[in-house]
């Protein structure tokens, strides 16, 4: 089996080709064709959420597959939009909901919300990238983690963003040789520890980011090995990497009494 670093670099250095190959997979191509041919006809939030095939495609694109069932929750996200700091999506600590409400801005655009580039081509691009990472994870979780970190890195502006994301902090801990047990410590102490070991500005430089992820890949290989990585029993493989529901999300779900 190909090593973690070789697999990651093979995909990363040929990302355009890798994405194209993923797009051409029969199931991805079929689902994408359905999405693009139907999303433009959606005029309301209820129509959007009511078409499971469309809605689940969009949710996966933004790393929200685990919340596809939560229709009342997502209706609230879409209904209030993102125009004000007091809207539901903006109050949630998880940025995925703001991204989703921005891409499908029914609150601002009404029946034109699904005609935007973000709602159409932009969502497809995100879906294909998610699928690429998922496919990589089915073979080696380390490769998926590296690809995920690579995708998220340019938008990281604070150490706390890393601490708030289970996948990002896992990559950072492994790359920097930090025990996962430190996650039990006070968040500010974790931030200080991480800040002493890494400069997040480096993630804005492709060469430095690649060096960091190469280190992660080597360390992952040392800890797991490709054979064990393939069968690693981690929810990071079976669920989107942006996994983990924050307390505010769980509380809202309970209040809304959402069912399938």
Descriptive account of the structure:
With 260 residues, the chain is mainly α. 67% of the residues lie in helices and 0% in strands. The protein contains 17 helices and no strands. The chain has helices spanning 4-12, 15-23, 26-38, 45-50, 52-61, 71-80, 88-91, 95-103, 106-109, 118-139, 141-152, 159-164, 166-176, 187-197, 206-230, 235-238, 247-256. The longest helix is centred in the C-terminal third of the chain and has 25 residues, at 206-230. It is globular, with a radius of gyration of 19 Å.
List the helices and strands and how they pair.
Blueprint: H1 4-12, H2 15-23, H3 26-38, H4 45-50, H5 52-61, H6 71-80, H7 88-91, H8 95-103, H9 106-109, H10 118-139, H11 141-152, H12 159-164, H13 166-176, H14 187-197, H15 206-230, H16 235-238, H17 247-256
Quick check: average pLDDT?
88
Number of helices: 17
How does the helix and strand content classify structurally?
A: mainly alpha
Pattern of helices and strands: HHHHHHHHHHHHHHHHH
């Amino acid at each position: 089996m190909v090593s973690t670093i070789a697999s990651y670099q093979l995909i990363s250095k040929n990302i355009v080709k890798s994405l194209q190959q993923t797009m051409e997979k029969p199931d991805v191509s079929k689902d994408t064709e359905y999405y693009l041919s139907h999303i433009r006809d959606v005029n309301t939030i209820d129509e959007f959420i009511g078409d499971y095939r469309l809605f689940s495609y969009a949710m996966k694109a933004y790393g929200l597959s685990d919340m596809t069932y939560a229709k009342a929750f997502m209706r609230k996200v879409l209904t209030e939009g993102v125009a004000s700091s007091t809207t539901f999506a903006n109050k949630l600590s998880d940025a995925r909901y703001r991204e989703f409400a921005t891409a499908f801005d029914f609150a601002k655009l009404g029946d034109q919300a699904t005609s935007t580039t973000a709602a159409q081509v932009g969502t497809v691009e995100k879906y294909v990238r998610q699928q690429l990472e998922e496919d990589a994870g089915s073979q080696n979780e380390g490769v998926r983690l590296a690809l995920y970190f690579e995708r998220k890195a340019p938008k990281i502006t604070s150490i706390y963003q890393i601490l708030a994301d289970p996948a990002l902090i896992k990559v950072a801990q492994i790359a920097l040789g930090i025990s996962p047990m430190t996650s039990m410590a006070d968040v500010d102490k974790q931030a200080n520890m991480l800040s002493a070991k890494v400069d997040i500005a480096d993630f804005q430089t492709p060469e430095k980011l690649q060096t960091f992820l190469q280190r992660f890949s080597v360390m992952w290989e040392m800890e797991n090995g490709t054979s064990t990585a393939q069968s690693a029993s981690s929810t990071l493989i079976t669920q989107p990497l942006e996994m983990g529901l924050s307390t505010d999300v769980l509380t809202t779900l309970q209040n809304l009494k959402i069912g399938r």
